[in-house]
Amino acid sequence: MEKKISKAVVRRLPKYHRYLTNLKESGVKKISSKELSDMIGFTASQIRQDFNNFGGFGQQGYGYNVEELLEEVKGILGLGQEYSVVILGAGNLGSALAKFNDFERYQFNIKALFDIDEAIVNKKINGITVHHTSELDEFLIRNEIDIAFICTGNSVAQELAEKAVSLGVRGIWNFAMVDLHLPSSVIMENVHLIDNLFTMSYFLKSK
Amino acid sequence: MEKKISKAVVRRLPKYHRYLTNLKESGVKKISSKELSDMIGFTASQIRQDFNNFGGFGQQGYGYNVEELLEEVKGILGLGQEYSVVILGAGNLGSALAKFNDFERYQFNIKALFDIDEAIVNKKINGITVHHTSELDEFLIRNEIDIAFICTGNSVAQELAEKAVSLGVRGIWNFAMVDLHLPSSVIMENVHLIDNLFTMSYFLKSK
User: Fold this and answer.
1) What is the pLDDT of residues A119-157, one digit of tens each?
2) Beta carbon pairs, A and B, within 8 Å
3) Cβ A13–B198 below 8 Å, yes or no?
């Protein structure tokens, strides 16, 4: 049985996933919390505590089995199952996301893009069809979609996210520069690129 | 004189910037901390405290002057001055970033892209030339560049970021899926898209 894991631990899991994947690909079989700590930058005690949260593998004096630990982290992250995705907005960012092969590698399968720009509707991006946004309702009714990437302009982001959620989408990955207001049951992550850049300019200016 | 502002406040500033910009564009002249709170979701007392950090504008019973406050937030964020940018890696993501007009709007001026793919070297993306990565040294010596966006593959991200920093770049915006190790004087922000998506899959699976 999995214990309830705090949000802080969950946010560290993808990083563990990244490092363990690299270790496995480099042929490393086992690793101590101290060695992981030197690489990742979390303290060894933090790492042991995190891994204890979900079963605790390490053996005193032996360390962790990299492959087992990686499989465990994958399972906890919900990887190894398929997620169906639509991308709303097929402009620069939406198109770029459609071309990322890493999504497919982790079974986030992009089923369709949607846009209102007639110049790209019915075209394909990386083999995935761009549909007119007016077809979104029907598409979501006919297909079980887990996640919508919101790559539209700010003015329509809320409306389209609401529509997606009302038709069964459970996860919203929001790239629009607005905060979306959605039912608390919806899993939402935000990537506000400009906010990130402004944090940089603050620190650049302050130096 | 500006007081030293905590990192937590700095991270909220871009959000204030976003809301105040929208308010100004909607013609709103003044706003109370209570009204801002209802929109942004921070408590009114948090908002008053944040604004007190940098001079404190509000007048009891009157509220904040939207335009003045926006100008103040911009100044603190280091906006209103120009930043010169290079994009390292002109693949899907690097190209998409070169096409974002919001960067130029805020005076983050993209001067050049760099890539090793002969098929795109010397081509232009949104009017900006793609140079061969072998020309990076000379370009950075001849041009004062503030920020490098790292959009390369994981294997070369560290090496190129180090080179950029050694030749005067002060800010690194890292989109590669690796953690970069750079001198602590470097301003670095990370956008690990896959990490973000994995956090979503965790919560989707847990529901």
Assistant:
1) 999 999 999 999 999 999 999 999 999 999 999 999 999
2) 156
3) yes
**Distance between CA B85 and CA B12 in Å, rounded?**
24
Residues 93-152 of B with CB under 8 A from A: 93, 95-96, 99-100, 102-103, 106, 108, 146-147
| Closest to A89 measured CA to CA, from A59, A107, A110 | A110
Dist. CA A50–CA A118, nearest whole Å: 50
Our CA-based measurement puts residue B4 at a distance from the nearest CA of chain A, in whole angstroms, of 10
CA dist B151 and B136 (Å) reads 14
Q: Is A173 in Cβ contact with B81 (below 8 Å)?
A: no
Nearest Cα to B198, choosing from A199, A46, A21?
A21
Taking only the tens place, the pLDDT of each residue in A7-53 is: 889 999 999 999 999 999 999 999 998 999 999 999 999 998 888 87
Q: Which amino acid is at B32?
A: S
Tokens 């060695």 appear where?
A35
